[in-house]
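User: Some background: our group keeps a shared notebook of sequences we're curious about, and every so often someone picks one and asks for a predicted structure to add to the entry. Today it's my turn. The entry only has the sequence so far, pasted here. Could you supply the structure so I can complete it?
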Amino acid sequence: MGEYSSRVSPLSRQFGKAQAAELDASVLNDTAKLEELSVKGKLVHAGHEKKVGYWLLLCAGAVFGMIILGGYTRLSKSGLSMVRWKPIEYSYPRSQAQWEEEFEHYKVGIV
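Assistant: Of course. Here's the predicted structure to add to the notebook entry:
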C-alpha cells in the first residue's frame, strides 16, 4: 500500500482524492484520458475564451495607446516636467507666491 499511496499522492493534488483513488494503471497509460481529466494547461474555462480574448485585446490596446501618447508627448516636448519628485515630503504650493516660485523652478528645469 505504501507504493500505491506515494504514486497517488501527486495525482490527488491535481485531481482531488476521490478522482485520484479511481485512477488505475490503465488510465495512467491512456494519454487521451489523462488530457481529458487534466486541468493543467487550461488557463481559461470553456466558454469564456472570447471574453478573455477581448479583455487581452483591450489591455494590449490600452498599452499601445499609452506608448503612442507618451511618445507623442515626448517628441512634441509638450509634457510637464517634474521639478521635484518627493511625494512624501513635498507639499503643494498654497499661496500665489509659492506657485510663482514653483513655476520658476519649472522654467529652470525646462532649459
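Suggested note for the entry: Residues 80-111 form one domain. The helical segments are 2-15, 17-22, 25-29, 31-37, 49-76, 96-110.
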